[in-house]
Amino acid sequence: MDLHYVSTRDRSNRVTASQAILKGLASDGGLYVPEHLPEFEFKPEDLVGKTYQEIAYEVMRHFLTDFTEEELKTCIKRAYDSKFDSTEIAPMTYAQGAYYLELFHGRTIAFKDMALSILPHLMLASARKNGADREIVILTATSGDTGKAAMAGFADVKGTRIIVFYPKDGVSAIQERQMLTQTGNNTHVVGIHGNFDQAQSGVKRMFNDPALNARIREKGFQFSSANSINIGRLVPQIVYYVYAYVKLLENEKIAAGEKINIVVPTGNFGNILAAYYAKRAGIPIARLICASNENRVLYDFFLTGIYNKNRPFQVTTSPSMDILISSNLERLIYEIAGESDVTDARLMEALTRDGRYEITDQMRQKLGDFYGNYADEGQTAQAIKDIYEACGYVIDTHTAVAASVYGKYKADTADETKTVIASTASPYKFLHDVMAAIDPKYANAADFDLIEPLSEISGLPVPRAVSEILTAPIRHDTVCDVDQMDDVVCKALGL
To answer: Is 110 within 8 Å of 145 (Cβ atoms)?
Structure first.
């Protein structure tokens, strides 16, 4: 049966999966969600022994129903190939009482590769399927990882251009160098004098600017998104939670039907929402543990039922989570509001107008699957140090936020359910903060001087993504103010 997608703010805005991928953001400003959440036709035990690619097909066919089997399998084959440094694609490591699902073995050593390796292929297939004849302009904001992963996926892909905005002083040295050295004649990288929320708000505004959209359409372009607001980003993320469960079964760490917990470090809420969708579709998941850093807007939401972005913006050692507007939370709000587009639209209007909204008690009762907590900077560093000293395993700052919050969860609940922690980035991506946490003697060292020391203490080879950028030339140097973003886009497109 075909699964259609509707806007969270207007259910009459109904499209196919391929149309939702192509559009990225609904014209009314809402996010596309499945008209109804599908249930998997398989049991996890049916997938034991299958490859990541095979599991990806079994999962994604339930959500992308207007793609043919051949189209979907071709997209998957092209995405999950030798660009990953592990044939498992997402291997798991057991450390200090939890299973770390390593989502950083792709081209840019961060979890965004898991979805952004396949999105260009899904998007081009969607364009062909819908007879789109305009050049697709991927317009995206990044807090550090999405931008590089998106550009790596779309670089020199015929019929596309990609423009990435990032906070100039809000990413790690490695993250910035990865973006600024990105090749591809169709790639553009722009630093803004502002934070991620301002970059994301600017991108959303351009998506919803009728005059700008009319202007670019007249010149043969159309906007689309590579952020997790695009359902083509979210669906591939569901796969690795299914894969993790299957691998635990395969390795006899759990029994068929046994529930597991999932811990996700998150700012924009997309990655943990994918785990929620996996649970709703039939994967035995008990609790979804939402880990925040000092920008604890999601923790406060789960604690109080009030979402309030009116607070100081904290720049932390886990910059990909330095976010105060968690865009994907809107999809959950729509769900717990009984799929009410009216309620969702009202709350999102309040967020835009007042910077806050409050959900009802009835809606709060539907959040029982979630547990929220946060780790401050000291706790994040301590988690890195503790895990390294306990078992020699080195994790990055974002994963450390998750590990710290998982410790708090166990202290609060005494829950011994087997748990998977989403390890969202390689420690090489945040060299300085990881090494300084392990040993203060590294605190004053430059990021790039710590590559070899990390390799020595961790036993991990230097990823290709890091070694390549050491000698790569800087190709992008554009910087602008927030109110100049439109002008930069127009200039990049030659308008």
So the answer is: yes
Task: Retrieve residue 394's tokens.
Answer: 């080195």
Q: How far apart are the first and last CA of the chain?
A: 43
In degrees, to the nearest 5, what angle opens at C-alpha 24 toward C-alphas 22 and 25? 135
User: What sections of 103-193 are H helices per DSSP?
Assistant: 112-116, 119-129, 146-154, 173-180
CB atoms within 10 A of CB 411: 9
Scan for tokens 């989502």, then name that residue: 103
- Convert the pLDDT of each residue in 62-88 to its tens digit: 999 999 999 999 999 999 999 999 999
pTM: 0.92
Within 13 Å and on the Cβ side, how many CA atoms surround 287? 19
The torsion angles phi and psi of 419, rounded to 5 degrees, stand at -130, 135
229 is written with which tokens?
């607001």
CA atoms of 27 and 22, how far apart (whole Å): 12
Report the alpha-carbon distance of residue 180 to residue 46 in Å, rounded. 44
Helix (H), strand (E), coil (C) string for 383-446: HHHHHHHHHCCCCCHHHHHHHHHHHHHHHHHCCCCCEEEEECECHHHHHHHHHHHHCHHHCCCC
Taking 80 as the threshold, does the pLDDT of residue 43 lie above it?
A: yes
Separation CA 399–CA 217 (nearest Å): 41
Closest CA relative to residue 119, chosen from 39, 229, 29 = 229
CA atoms within 13 A on the CB side of 377: 8
pLDDT in tens, 370-428: 999 999 999 999 999 999 999 999 999 999 999 999 999 999 999 999 999 999 999 99
Q: How many CB atoms lie within 10 A of CB 333?
A: 22
d(CA 457, CA 438): 10
